[in-house]
Amino acid sequence: MSSKAKRALITGVTGQDGSYLSELLISKGYEVHGIVRRSSSFNTSRIDNIRGDVRDPRAKLLLHYGDVTDSANLSAIMHRVQPDEVYNLAAQSHVRVSFDMPVYTVDSVAFGAIKVLESVREAQQSLGKQIRFYQASSSEMFGKVMEVPQKETTPFYPRSPYGVSKVFAHWATVNYRESYGLHASCGILFNHESPRRGETFVTRKITRAVGRIKLGMQDKLFLGNLDAQRDWGFAGDYVEAMWLMLQRAEADDYVISTGKMISVREFCRLCFERVGLDYQKYVATDPRYFRPAEVEQLLGDCTKAKQKLGWTPRTSVEMLAHMMVDADLELAKREKTLRDAGHAVESEEREHHH
Ligand code: NAP
Ligand code: GDD
Which helix (H) or strand (E) holds 117? Predict the structure, then answer.
């Protein structure tokens, strides 16, 4: 590790965005540190290809056990790593689950953010170096939208414990910027997806099912509200915007989106069509997946990011759907091969016993 390399610390490094951001920062020559939760099973599959051993001088991604609900641990890590940039991506990030776990969602999303902010403020003071901060704000804060499209000045109207918590974290970040002069920026990111998306978010749930249905491993796909509309982009494009925000002389808040919105139904059509199937034959609704309060539509206007950051989305929703379906078809093929091999071994064993 070069002592001149910039150091970044990422909370939520094991998640979708954490993995893409790590890759981006490493490609830019950063030494990347990530906070990982202790878990009884492995939770680092998205970063296993890039992580290194702390004793390896060539290691570019170093992991620290921690949790954003634990202030003492955050403070210790901040002092150990002495980062130049901190990206706060950790969250219980599933909107439907936030209705089942409102208190934990507030703990990780709202209190977690303020605990990270406090540890940054304290470390910056005691280490005598500037630490730039990124907060993962969300289009979910617009909720029951007050104008279309949504931009940085659109009032918030959150519709879930998750959205409410993100509004708190967002304003806490603005407040630390204004109160303490912290270089703290919020990226108000609209939905962004990838082949690494968690399997219970709707896009990935659809593309996983398309792969399995195409290979005859699944018959039906049960979804909730098919009429919800989202502005879906590619996670790989969106993490670049996070980095760009922290390279600006002034900290600020930016909407990151594609400017195009389609329905869940339309996303299904795109994905099933990719493998030559008609979604209407396979998709059914199950009220289990409805939400107590729904965000019906989200559409972003990222003019400010285009003008000030020089950022622009490069992946259309059609390209995104195809990328995800292609990856999940390959995954389903590997699963099928394993399953068939398992069956072959089983029947061989049966023959042997009889
Ligand atoms: P994700 O895949 O769900 O990843 C969340 C990450 O946070 C995981 O690494 C998870 O660890 C970690 N985490 C959860 N609770 C934690 C805790 N108490 N302490 C430490 N780490 C914790 O989410 P994502 O899609 O990458 O999103 C990244 C961030 O952007 C989140 O804050 C999300 O709310 C926000 N956001 C996402 C989108 C989107 O469309 N993807 C849009 C706007 C904003 P485990 O792996 O151990 O679970
Ligand atoms: N998850 C899920 N599962 N959603 C479904 C389903 C289903 O079976 N059927 C329909 N939907 C609808 C949801 O009701 C919602 O309107 C839409 O599909 C998108 O749901 P998700 O993919 O779960 O994402 P989200 O928009 O609720 O939240 C995501 O985007 C936010 C940014 O706007 C998450 O990544 C949040 O963390 C992020 O902040």
Answer: helix 112-127
Q: Is the pLDDT of residue 282 over 70?
A: yes
To which residue do tokens 């400010």 refer? 304
138 a catalytic residue: yes
- C-alpha closest to that of 10 among 28, 22, 27: 22
Among the bound ligands, the one closest to the CA of 71: 1
Residue 64 has pLDDT above 70, yes or no: yes
Cα(282) to centroid(ligand 1), Å: 30
Which pTM was predicted?
Answer: 0.96
Rounded to 5°, the CA angle 192-85-158 comes to: 40
Instruction: Write the CB contacts of 17 (distance below 8 Å, at least 6 apart in sequence).
Output: 89, 136, 192, 235, 238, 239, 242
pLDDT over 80 at 127, yes or no? yes
The domains found in the chain, sorted by start residue, are 7-335 (3.40.50.720)
List 93's β-bridge partners, or say none: none
Percent of the chain with pLDDT over 90: 92
Tell me the C-alpha distance between 59 and 100, whole Å.
39
How far, in Å, is the centroid of ligand 2 from the Cα of 280? 20
* Active-site hit among 30, 134, 162, 238: 162
